[in-house]
Every structure is written in C-alpha cells, then in structure tokens.
Amino acid sequence: MFDEAARSVGGPRSQWRPALSAVLLTTTMLCAVPATVSAAQPADSQPVAQAAGTVSFAIPAGPLSGALAAFGQASGLQILYAAEMARGVASPGVTGTLTHREALIRLLSGTGLTARFVDGGTVTLEKPVAAGATVLDPVTVQGSSSRDAGRTEGTGSYAASTTASATKLTLTPRETPQSVSVMTRQRMEDQGLNEIRDVLDQTVGVTRMQSGALGSDGSEIYARGFEVKNFQVNGTPRSTVYGFGDSISDMAVFDRVEVVRGASGLMNGVGDPSASVNLVRKRPTSTVQGTIEGQVGSWDRYRGEADLSGPLVENGRLRGRVVGAYQDNDTFIDRLHERKKVLYGVLEADLTEDTTWTVGVEYQKHKSDEASRAGFPLFYADGTKTDFSRSYNSGANWAYFMHDNLTVFSELKHRFGDGWTATLNVEHSNREYDGLMGYGVRGSLNRDGTGMGIWPGRWNSNLQQTSVSADVTGPFELFGRRHEVMAGVSGYYAKRSGLDYPLWYLTGYNYNIPNYFTWNGNIAQPTLNPTGWSQTNERQMAAYAATRLKPTDDLSVILGSRVSRWEQSEETHANGVAGTFKKRSKNGVVTPYAGAVYDLSDIWSVYGSYTSIFKPQDYKDVSGQTLDPIDGDAYEAGVKAEFFGGRMNASAAVFLIQQDNLAVIDTGRFTPDGGQAYKAAKGAKSKGFELEVSGEVLEGWQIGGGYSHTKVKDASGQQLLTYVPKDSFKLFTTYRLPGALDRLTLGGNVKWDGGIHNGTGRTRYEQDGYAVVDLMARYQVTEKVAATLNLNNLFDKKYLTSIQNNGYYGEPRNVLLSLKASW
Q1: Rounded percentage of the chain residues whose pLDDT exceeds 90
Q2: Domain that includes residue 83, residue range
C-alpha cells in the first residue's frame, strides 16, 4: 500500500515520509499528542474485521465507478483503484445483506477485477498486468468509516451518504425525518465556494441577505421565514452571545456543511426554528494525499491553499493533516479590501484497536478595510428612489472589521462490541472582534447630495467558550428486533468581555458628509475613548436521549427529548457610574422530538416529525427591555427517495411553524441607546414546502438544487418579513464529457429569488424576482493537475441583496480561475 502511495507522489517512501511527518508534527505541536502510541500489528496481519461484518446492500447494475462509490458509502471502506480500470466497465450490482467480501465478489463479477483487503478499512482492486505494461496511479473511493461517518471528500459526489446533524444518530438522508441539505466537498470546489456565506447562499431553502462588508453584522441568513443563528462545528453548538457564530468561516478547513432546516431542539436546546448549520471539519486520511491550489479572479482576488494528509508512522496508527490558506482581494465595491489567513492542524491516533484520539487546532483571521456596515439609502428625502452605482461605498476610509479566532479541540472515541460507540468531545475557543465603524447612512439624502452623515463607533470584545459533550450510541435487541439508541450530556460556558466605546452620538463631532455623491470616505476619524466595560456570561447544560425503534422492516420511529438549563448574565460599568447587573435563566426546559419514516419501497419513503421551540433573544423594545423568549412548535412531513444505491437523493417536504414573541422591526423607533427597536409578534406562523435533489443522475452527471416556498404571517394574517423572498429556486449541475473529451467537465448554475418589498406609502420599495446564471468548466490538464474556470452572473444582472433598511447590491459579473495539483 505504501509503495502504491509513494508512486502517486512521485518518489520512494523513504524520501517523502520524514518530510511529511516533520511538517504535520511541527504545525500541530500545540495538540500535544503523546510521543508513543500503542503498538499495532503490521497492516498485512491485522484482522480484517471490516470484511467480516454484514451490511444491507442495494446497488443496481450500472457503471463500475458509480457502483464502487455506492459500495464505499454503504460499507465505510476505502477502495483504491486506477481510474482506467473502471472506464467503460459495467457492474452487475449487488443486493442483500452480505459481508463486505461477499458483496465485492458479486459487484466485480464479470469485470475481470479482483479485490484485496489491505487492512480492516482499505481495499485495492487489481487485475493481471501484462509484461511491459504501465502501472497506473491509484485513485481513491472514500467510504464513511465509523471514525468519519458521512465524509464527502474523495467521493466526487453531490449526495451525502449519512448525516447525524438532526438527531446525533448516524442515518442516511432518507432515514432522517427532517429536511437535510449537505453541501459536499466536491460541490464546494466546483462552484468555488470558499466562504460559509456563499455555501448557504447556494443551499436550498436558505436566503442570504447581504447588507454589509465581510465581518460586519450586516449579513443575515434566513430559512423558513426566520433568521438562522444556530451554528455548530462538528456538532458542538456555538453560544448565542454576539460574536460566537461561524457566519464568516473559510471553507478550506471543512469537509462538508450540513444544514438541517426547521427546528433542531434535540441538538441545540436553545435555538431558532429556521435551520441549524453544522460545519464538519476535515480529518486525517489513512493514505497519503495532498493538494496545492492557486486562484486568481476579478477585483484583484488572489488565493493560495495547501492541504497535506496521511499516516505519520509505518503502521498507520498515527495520522495527521495540515491545511493552510491565504486570500487577498478587493471587491466590486470601491475601496473595500479584504484579507484572511487560515491554518488548521489535526492529529488522529489509534490508541488501541478500538480507541481513537483526535486533537487539533484551527485558526482563522479575517480583516475588511474601508468597510461599511450598510449600503446606501433607497430613497431621497422627497420620497423618490435613488439609483446608486453598484460600486458605491458608504464606509469611511478609516473604518474596518476584524475577527481573530483560535480553537483547540479534542475527541476521544471508543468502539465497544456489537456497534456501540462512546465519544467525548472537548473544545475551547478564544476569539476577538474589533470593529471601527463609520458608515454613511445617517439622515435624509437631498438631491444635491446634502443631508447625510455617518454613524461612528467601535465594538471590541474578547470571547471565550469551553464546550464539553459525552455521548453513547449503539444498537439493542427488543421483541426480536434490532433498534438504536443515543444518549448524552453536554454543556458550555461562554464569556464576552471588553471595553465599551462611544456609539452613534458623539459630543462635538461633525458627522456631516458635504456631498454624498462625490464622497470618497474622507472624513475626520473620531476620538473614541472607553466609556466603561461590560461582560456577558452564558451557560447551557443539557441531557438528551433519542431512540430509533424498528417495529417492522419498513417502519422506523425516532423518539427523543432534551432537558436544558440556560443562564445568561450581563454586567456593565460606566466610567464614574455604578455598574448594573442583569440575569436571565430558564431551568428544566424540555424539548421533545418525534419522527417516523415508513418505507414504501426500496426507493421511496414517507416521513413526519415534530419538535418544540425555545429561544431566548437579545432584541430590545423601544423602552430598552429585552423581548421574551421565543416559544412554539414545528411540524414537518414529506417524501424521500434514494436512487442508484444512494448515489442520488430526492425529497419533498411541507412544514408548519407556530411561535410567539418573534422579533420584528419597530419601524422608525429606537432603543434608549440608539439601537433599532423591535416588537414581539404574537401568533406568528410560517408554512410552506421544499423540493430538493442531489447526486449523480447518470455516470459523470451531478446535480444539486431545488425549490422552496415560505409564507410568514402574524395572528391577524398580516404578512411578516416581506423583505425576505417567499420563493426561491437553485440548481447547479456538472457533466463530465464522455470518450475522447473526458478530460473536460462543464457546469451551470441558476439561482432565482422571487419578488420582495418593504416599507409603506411613498417609501415602499419593491424588487421583482430575478435570476442569476453562472457557468463552470474544468479541464484535467494531467492526471494530477486540473484547471477550473467559474464565470458568475453571466448576464451581469443588477439586483439588491437587501432592502431591509438600506440598499446593497449583489456581485456583478466576475470570473475565478483555479489551478489545482493533487497527489
């Protein structure tokens, strides 16, 4: 195996192993893995446990490459083979409950290929090599092993094999009684999606409302009519305190993004009924692999990325991975400049045959200079609409936003007999955000350019969060049938602390912009001395459990509940004034969950689910009082399908969300400290439907996308959130050409949002529905080097991404060229 890997990187193993080990160990020394690992047998003598277990297979006849991908997803094995072996070769498929070895024999029947188990998780395909023939470099089909279930890297697919983001039970999308969208590694690379905001913008049922620069709070994500604030990384929830979300994360670190639409109280306890976004980190691989990628694009965009992974010792019991990325770019907005740095290192050690310890560090720093927190006014003072250039920047030339995030994490996983697994996760993050604000949307714009000024101020805080969770999952026998159970406890402590600075109203400062039309950001920078300090503490502790019962072969019922304790305190001290202290808490909050899936056939299933909603909120009314927590119920039902042995997934869902105390803008009114005032809407109801498809339609043809429709009304029937599209359609597809043109892959994307409006009377702003079309082409220059061109907004459609308070344009036509080398 090592010899094959060595050939793929162009040299004998004696040359590459020391260098690889040095790089990985140096960049992850903070992880502090012990110098010794339990001794293991050589790979050739390890028990082939994977080959002995039985799995239910339903892989139809078809192209061998697709059949192998489906087998890898179902079995969790890595399959190494030369790409030329599978080209033009058909497989008879395999159906039934079989061992991995038995299934492979049937799958390869008539192909002339044989399978050899290298170890418990790796298989190579072989055929006799004629004298003088060229030995081809191996390619890898990655399965979903127990230590990395659901992995999408290396599958080349837009379909996910499994997900645990809805219930912590590892289920296929068809077995999950909620709507789950998974943005795979291949899809992100094909579309050039390097930021989480871009990933969510392409996710079915999710709407991104961009209204400010990267790193500001000028962007909001909506799903099913409500804002998305539930972010997780590897299943660990982020605090609800401002600054802890992962809404600006760079995607170099992550294997995939799993979005569970609807309420996810079983996983979060405290959360919105919109969606939960789980970013899943890359893990070390059992074979050596690496990539180096460079990108150039419109507006002087330059990006470099490197990713190196593999075993660090001869027996493969210690594995490592290091990822780094750097990006520097202007934008279509005048003067706005962005930079980011990303570094990620992770080690994974098999302490015993059944125990794996993972430890890692993730660092990301993002900076936006001459950045605005908003766009531009939509109306003149006389009520007529403005017409600004897409490149207009309302930010002062000294304004910036900075985020500096460092996270260390550890996972200890032990596999017991008969499929039982226990997992302990510990994570600690240190963050800092600093925003020096000066953005010109203050006042009323006259036609001669007068009447406008800036909102100045500064936000600067340090944040820390420590999270711990312990879970156990496994099967059990009851009434002669096999079922599954999951139980666990979790908790986190989060703290935000920092100096307070003047905001919005500064004595003696001249906010005025002489001529808004010719303004280039030049205005005096105010002196902002601290006015005091403040601190927010948040704690959440929970116990949860869920079981998946199988009363019959066709019916599965998931029942679960979470009991949570939530507490938040705020302490403020102004210079020379006695401090204030506020505390809010909820104890014994019970969040039930119920879901059922019934298989109509080997392909089709129907499902339904219910969960409750509880979410404390920080929005304040005109008197400065915090709104009461959101509470309510969420219902969902639908049909799902799994085609071609799991290579393509499809779903259709209807949903109903009922809740009280939804925060809506109290137009034209402000809190005592100058912030936007909100009011609580009673009896808010959201209902709608979603359609989605993802995966491989035919060999070489991938597709991902769907349609969503949502309506949100209050108890009186008045429509809410009219500035968020009710309807949207997204579809991205790629096709690898056959025969002599098989080095070329072509793709296209259509994203359509329905009409929106906001305001009343002469200040009512309307935007009709619009579509944006993108094109993509990738050429495989050699077996290891590929060039990809993305042409976005082909027809240069001019549209607004936000009309909530001010206007902000979407990106004009732009290009991105990527050159990637892999081994």
Answers
A1: 58
A2: 54-126
